[in-house]
Amino acid sequence: MGKRQFRGAENGDGPRKRQRVVHEAPTSEVIHTSRQLRQLLAFDPDLGRSRHGLQSFKLLLDSLISRDDITDNAEKRQQHELRFTIVKEYLQSTKPIEDDESSTYLPDIMQTWSHAGQVNNENLLSAVPVVLALLLKLLSQSLELTPIGLGICRTLLQKRQQELISRSLSADKGKAFIISPTLRMLREAVCFDGGAIARLMFRARVSMLKSLARNMGIVHIGEEPEDIKKPSPRTNAVQFFLSALKYLHPEAKKELLAQRDVVTALTRDIKQDLPYLVLELLNGLRDHVLLDNKVPREAKSNLLSSTTLIKISGLYYYRQVNGDLPSIPEVAHDFLMTACTNPSCGVLRQDTGLYPREADPNAAIPSADLEELGLEAIVWMNKFKTEVPVRNFVLSNLLQNLRPWSSVKQSELITSIFKVAPELIADFFIKNKSFTFEPKLSATWIGYAAFLFTTVALPLPEYFCRGSGYAELPPPTSVVMDNILPLPLNQKALSRCLTNKSRMVSFFATRILILAVQKLDTAVRMHQDPAHSSKSHNNQALWTEAARRLVDEFCQRSPGIKEMINSYRSIPEDDILHREAASQLLRLYYEVIPQVALMAKFDVSPLLETALKRLSKHEKQKETRSEEDVESDPRDFALSLKELENLLAIAGYSPGMRWFAATEQLTLSPFTTLLKVYVEAPHGVSLAPVRRVLDFVAVEQQVVPAKDKGHPGISVLLEPLMELMASSPSSLAILWPFLDKCLTRYTTAPVKYLEMLQDLAKDAEDEVLTVSPLVAAIIEQLPFAAKAADSKSTLERLGRFLPKFLGYSAAAGESKPLLEAALAVMSESFAQGLEKSLTVPKKHPFKQAKGGKSTEAKQDTNNTTAEGKKSESGDDVVALDSEQLERVLNAPDSLAADNSALVKWQNKSVDELVDEGHAISLISLLASEHASIRKEALVNILKMAAKVQQSEYEEKEQIWLLLSELAETARVAAASQAVNAVVPLPSTVIAFACHAVNVLRDPTHSLYPKINSFLISGPFWSVDRVPLADEVLTEEPAVGDSYYAQLNWLLAYLLDGLRTSKDLELFHKKRAKGPLFERLLAVAGNPYMRTPLRMQVLRILYRATKIEGGSTTLITRFGVVSWLEELSKMKKSMSATQSQGGAGNIVSSEDEVAVYKGLLKRIWETCDKGRVEGWSKGGVEKVIV
């Protein structure tokens, strides 16, 4: 077949290929007058001349925009003013006569643009938007020319211009020289005059947002980086989108963010964007979407999809060359932290704690099934071992794309998400099995170990859920276990870590196990909470079984106790930090899981002896160290003491511990060595645990009388030793062997020394044997000490110690005749052993020691005497002044009117109305002093009630009933007073309604049943009664042991409800069960009530003093002066009792007494003094003043 002939031009001379399009550079000229500019921009069918005029105008605008006021000299400023005058005169000359929406600004340029579209001239289609963008940018800097700029923007919204814009935006992807200028022009238009025409532009979104998603995908192509002066279509499209978000109203933002293709394209190529664009994008989305409370939650959810969050998380690996800008990874981290942990941002959904999505924690299960099957009767209890359904599926998808072992920021993000959404912990580790905890000392393993450490350190959700109390059924054991010990921390991996040669690997595993056991202890305590056995729950057996199963599961997942013991024994002595951690882990096992710890038959005596030997060695080095030697770190001694504390606790659980038996390693017995550590410990070291062990062992071995008999216990021995330590430290070195021998011999044969005391009592004619048997052991050993080689120095030291010891014993209430007889026997040994007589008082040396300080002050900090200097009586406590009292007791008025609530609620969903407080703000307006505001509020409450009833909100019936009954109460109150306006309701009614909303939105709240019963009791409320006051104060709580929680709720709403004199009348009005003030004072008089609740009552009294006549009423009708006086006395007596027992907190007690006195002073200053003086005949003034 032959070749076909060309059918082109005649003679076949025409070109066979498409001619190449050549873009010639436009010509230009310098503009000197506005007339010249007008002639250049006049419409001309010749496209070359039109382009010449536009290019000349562009260069003029460039020179005006790119000027610098700081570096320009006077001549350049003059030239700039001349050029600006040219542009100004040109714009004034082309301004239409009638300025309306149909007027066309810059008609010649618009006609040129239209003609370019008709003839398809791409050069002019690009040049016109360039000129218009520069012109709008220039006009935005001039307030005088702003109307003209607005006119140009409105011209762009005309039909012909919209068609041209739509055509340019949908041009081929390769024609970026047309797309980019058009997007820049639109951005300048939407930003002009603070977004004045943004709303109008959004109405024309069909053309203005044409191909926006596609244009966001036209990125810069080439090996060279993108030029900032010539941004790609994607850069211009993203900037235009962000500008629109900034100036559009919330509903328009919602519709814009609903375009999924645009939202997806927004972050698709974010890793390739320039740093400044990434910063603009993240900051713009954060400021104008996430943190904009007016943007609906669903709109934010449309933006922050899984795809968007994953793309943004990729910025953790963004390589940034320019160091002048903020770090992109840090900005992205802050953005993700805000988006993923703030519920208002639309991503985080409220979960139910450790109850998965398909689990009903309050499901009704027949009691017969529960008794027969136990936990197996719950169908979902064993369902979530391989998969955990979650509500936060978006966050779940994001977490699977993060690598916590490679970045500290990513680890912080994940743990922050775990903290606000604990349901994701189990889900994350079930799905993410790409990394195991097999020990391998590398940077990756250390990063993963640190992440697991912070995860285990997260607290368990309160009540295991989001409610205000425990659910009926316990959470799934597997989910709780995954929160305590995540799946990578299995028995095999942890055992290998403990036995690893690397000390760091073993230390990491030890610290993680410590947190896990502490967390297990918390979980078991929550399972054993008495609230499970209340009338409403009564599932204590079920929760107990769940706790037992949880402990069994933990034992199967954690390493054996023998491996932990072997790991502890293998730690070098110089690794003090690791030894302290390992000893703490063993102690926790003995305290939390004793059934496992005691199976190992662990003999703690050698380790305890080693620890005591180390401390003794430290003391010897301290004594022999010269002043020139470098002192050791006191933190090392504190850690050693902490290790000793842990070993002592283990020894307390060990039945075979020998406290009074010396060994080859220790010259003194463990008990005496502890005494030595306690007395000679450096300043600032906490010794409370050592003191508790000494007390326990001394009472257990009957070295001293028990504390329940009024005896201070081991203090009678510690006080004289500490006084000797302060006055003559060298004396103690000789005393320790003698004292250890006495203690050892007594504990070996206690009956012998008790008989010696009985014989001594017969000689002293005293039948009361309240003397420490240690006295008899000292009497027996003194003759041997007098015959020793160093008897002189020993007796001299004993001569300083024994009078103090006997004196403190007498001051502690021991038998004085017996002590006198013992002192007489001791004096004989001193007379035989010393060549010169030793001055030892023979008669009542006890009086000298009665004022001795107790060693209890040393329980927290050694050698600290500041606590002893405080007043024990509280008589010198100074009352708080008015400013301090206001700072403590003044509470803000929560019913303060916010009139904007009348309109804010209308565009909110029902969930937002209830959860974000818009309903409460609207209800509060019923307390407004203006009748018109109250009327508007009532109308809006009825509208809100109708909106709630038509919604799908879970608690819509209760919220609707509350709002309707409140409105009906306001109507009935107005009708009873025969007025047309909405009368002010009592503040107690309004405050009750506000606080009841928060209860009704949470069905697990302890007051939920009572408030529902109150709502169904009648169509309106009595304004003469205080709602639910009788029910809370006198009736048993409906849910568990929640009396104080309900009382706290009642006091909070009563405080908000006391604002006016009419409210005060409700508080002191006579009722069947007594006035409300009288009942509140009786409740607060409970000596065991917690301080925060009592402070709430004091705040109510303080609020009453702000009302006219309130202070006078409190004094004359309720005896508040006597009540406050009795409270002060009660607090002082409790403080004294606690200080004697060593567990008091005198500082807080003094603060409370100061508050009482300050409130008394406030009541006196604000009362009617004449009436009160006449009523009390001057008695109140004497008490207060």
Automatic annotation (TrEMBL):
URB1 C-terminal domain sequence ranges: 922-1123
Region span, Disordered: 1-27, 841-876
GO cellular component, one term: nucleolus
Coiled-coil residue spans: none
InterPro entries: HEAT_URB1, URB1, URB1_C, URB1_N
Entries under Pfam families matching the protein: HEAT_URB1, NopRA1, Npa1
UniProt domain URB1 N-terminal: residue ranges: 106-448
GO biological process: maturation of 5.8S rRNA from tricistronic rRNA transcript (SSU-rRNA, 5.8S rRNA, LSU-rRNA); maturation of LSU-rRNA from tricistronic rRNA transcript (SSU-rRNA, 5.8S rRNA, LSU-rRNA)
Domain of life: Eukaryota
URB1 central HEAT repeat domain location: 654-837
Name of the protein in question: Ribosome 60S biogenesis N-terminal-domain-containing protein
